[in-house]
Amino acid sequence: MPKAAREPKKKNKKSKEPPKPEAAPDHRQLGIEQELFTTSIYSPGSTIFLPNGARIFNKLTDFLRTQYDHFGFQEVITPTIYKKSLWEKSGHWENYAEDMYSVTGRGASGEKEGRQVGEDEEYGLKPMNCPGHCLIFASKQRSYRDLPIRFADFSPLHRNEISGALSGLTRVRRFHQDDGHIFCRPSQIREEISKTLEFVRLTYGVLGLGPYRLALSTRPKDHYIGTVEDWDNAETALKDSLDTSQQPWTLNEGDGAFYGPKIDIILKDSDGKEHQTATIQLDFQLPKRFELEYQAPAPEIEKKGLTTEDPELLSVQGPVTPVLIHRAVLGSVERIMALLIEHHNGRWPFWLNPRQVKILAVNDSPEVLAFVQKTVEELQGYEPLATTGAGRGLGALGAGLVRGGRLAIDVDVTPRNLNKKLLEAKLQRYGVLVVVGKQNVQSGRLTVDFSAIPDYRYDIRESKMLNNILKAYQEYKQTRDSQFSGWGENWAPDEDDLPIQLDDTPPRRLDWEEVKAFPISARTLRRVLNGLQTSFV
Length: 537
Ligand SMILES: [Zn+2]
Fold this sequence. Notes:
Blueprint: H1 2-15, H2 27-33, E1 37-38, E2 48-49, H3 51-71, E3 74-75, E4 81-83, H4 84-90, H5 92-95, E5 101-103, E6 123-125, H6 130-138, E7 149-153, E8 156-158, E9 174-184, H7 189-207, E10 212-217, H8 228-244, E11 249-252, E12 262-268, E13 274-283, H9 285-289, E14 294-297, H10 299-303, H11 311-314, E15 317-320, E16 323-332, H12 333-344, E17 357-361, H13 366-380, E18 409-412, H14 418-427, E19 432-436, H15 438-443, E20 447-449, H16 460-481, H17 488-491, H18 512-516, H19 522-534
Parallel strand pairs: 3-7, 10-11, 17-18, 17-19
Antiparallel strand pairs: 1-2, 4-6, 5-6, 7-9, 8-9, 9-16, 10-12, 12-13, 13-16, 14-15, 19-20
Helix pairs in contact: 2-12, 7-8, 13-19, 16-19
Zinc ion (ZN) binds near residues 129 and 326.
């Protein structure tokens, strides 16, 4: 018996290995197959994200927004066009104009030379967010106590790439960066770089991309601004941060930008091809061009990134130029999407899957259709009208609102053969399939197939999902036992959804067949799916 019981388990193990790539996946082809994005001759190089692509894009940016709270970034929303005089101030007009789009409009024809700022100026479509963030920093008095200040921005950026170079999501004219600018004291460089490297490590871990290597580029031989001392201090800080990151890094001597040293994150894809994605750049130049400053005691010491206890020196306050760190973790969201599309080759982890759940109706009888609709509402987290515990929150108004984790749910109620519909949904790589028939209407339970969730990174089927069910059960018990008895029936999982006794130690592990065959209520399924969604699996 034990031997026979072990047999299918082995089989399961085998299927858990990462799928072997057939042909080298191409994100442009997969983008068409999965209906992620398209392009148009009317705007070459600007991606048109279709609903499925927009879902992935938003999942990535939402993921970063959540991390921003933790890493102390504040999101800002900034203009797309700025006057030429701003780009002159930032140096872009001098060094980058070739790659920029010029914009003219009413009262901004650019024809009248020598007019005041604001009267008749040409505009430039922004290729970078840095100048806009400098304007925000300069918009009020800053003290050393306010620093570091970290701004994040997902604005679309435009760069006028030559049309022959345009391709898919990797060579584009319009793209989005997960852009961030940190304004800090010279003494804070080390810590900010370390935090950024940690942010990079966590993000790439979640995305399952890598390995990557870190490359430090240092002061160019001739063409650079700032003092050698500034550079040496900054480079030492970067090297220290790289060493403490305990990740391998290499040195590109003399390869830094003229305005400061930088760390590039170079990612290796499944074909061994290298892509520069994330970047961390120190900048001594831009804060000076924008005359940015903050007030600090002992400004001469502060400028060197040092501190003093000398009361006489500390009694003098003065202006100090902040250090600017440009940093992007994903780099271009479009390029990361291209890498992810090829990396997953259609088998998305549940949280990123633009096709998370498909509900298939066995027939189109009114009862089944009504149950399908009810199931969608329950999975999305529409709360039923509260009949008890009235007066809570939005009350009746809140009944139509969604509180769940924004699941991507599609429905197939076409009057076709169920097997055909199932096959199609599997080919479309839906993560979870829910079949609704007469039996389900009667029992109020769902027959769920989780088998399409790729589980080669985590052992979802046997532990993660069960843990979520167990968690749901525990929460249910706690709530039921607490005073809010009015809530219970509406949202908690039914007790007999859970075949495991909480007192079982250790809980009995269900095998996959048992789990799959186990009909669960929509509310329990919602908890499981929200659990998968926020565990980034
Ligand atoms: Zn920047």
